[in-house]
Automatic annotation (TrEMBL):
Key word Transmembrane present: yes
Keywords linked to the UniProt accession: Glycoprotein, Membrane, Signal-anchor, Transferase, Transmembrane, Transmembrane helix
Catalysed reactions, semicolon-separated: alpha-D-glucosaminyl-[heparan sulfate](n) + 3'-phosphoadenylyl sulfate = 6-sulfo-alpha-D-glucosaminyl-[heparan sulfate](n) + adenosine 3',5'-bisphosphate + H(+)
Protein name: Heparan-sulfate 6-O-sulfotransferase
Key word Transferase present: yes
Sequence ranges of Basic and acidic residues compositional bias: 186-204
Gene Ontology MF term list: heparan sulfate 6-sulfotransferase activity
Described function: 6-O-sulfation enzyme which catalyzes the transfer of sulfate from 3'-phosphoadenosine 5'-phosphosulfate (PAPS) to position 6 of the N-sulfoglucosamine residue (GlcNS) of heparan sulfate.
Membrane topology value: Single-pass type II membrane protein
Family: Belongs to the sulfotransferase 6 family.
Annotated stretches, region: Disordered: 186-223
């Protein structure tokens, strides 16, 4: 599941603000975890409880930045967490291309902002049906954060790769939904035609059968 980058970033900030950490995450890549120098911590102590949005955005090592691209891309293509292996622009382009390629090759993915379409595509892809319809909840903690325009723009810059990925993902997702609906209409049309054909054939068979002769009991009664 992918999510609008700004909403996702704010949601993670609120999550961390309440004391969440990823201390147990090993961030393994090419068989090893990153060194402290490669992946410094944004805070000292047990967690980052109470962190302000400004503090959250100020940490250059914050893994919340472009998280969706990093989670989908093949990090080994850019030397994992070793930022000195290539320039930032080249690294970003490679990660984005890798994330897009991997996403395109997935049989299914959904978007948080399109719950009903996500459900429909899942059901069509895997021929499964959920008991209840997905619900679109817009009253999230992220939605409750009031942002100044300059702050929103800064978050978008920090998540530039995620913004590009989401734009690509949304376009591809809607194309898949449209294609699935076209297939569904074709299947229904074919089923309808098959049903009409069977009915017509049954009617022709009934008309071609010889008239039914009297049964033996009727003949005896007449005799």
């Amino acid at each position: 599941m992918l999510r609008d980058p700004v909403s996702r970033y704010l949601s993670e900030w609120k999550h961390v603000q309440r004391g969440a950490t990823w201390k147990t995450s090993l961030h393994m890549c090419d068989g090893r975890a990153p060194t402290q120098a490669e992946l410094p911590s944004c805070y000292s102590g047990d967690d980052w409880s109470g962190v302000t949005l400004g503090e959250f955005m100020a940490c250059p090592h914050n893994l919340a930045n472009n998280r969706q691209v990093r989670m989908l891309a093949d990090l080994s293509l850019v030397g994992c967490y070793n930022l000195s292996s290539m320039g930032e622009r080249e690294r970003g382009a490679i990660l984005l291309a890798s994330a897009m390629s991997n996403l395109k090759n997935m049989a299914f993915y959904g978007l948080t902002e399109f719950q009903r379409k996500t459900q429909y595509l899942f059901e069509r892809t895997f021929r499964l049906h959920f008991i209840a319809a997905f619900t679109q909840l817009n009253s999230t903690r992220a939605a409750g954060v009031e942002l100044q325009q300059d702050v929103r723009h800064r978050i978008e810059r920090l998540n530039f790769l995620d913004v590009q990925l989401y734009k690509f993902a949304k376009e591809l997702f809607l194309q898949r939904v449209q294609f699935a609906r076209q297939q569904e209409r074709q299947e229904r049309r074919w089923q309808h035609e098959q049903k009409d054909h069977q009915s017509k054939r049954q009617s022709e068979e009934n008309q071609s059968q010889p008239a039914t002769t009297e049964d033996y009991a009727s003949q005896v009664a007449r005799w």
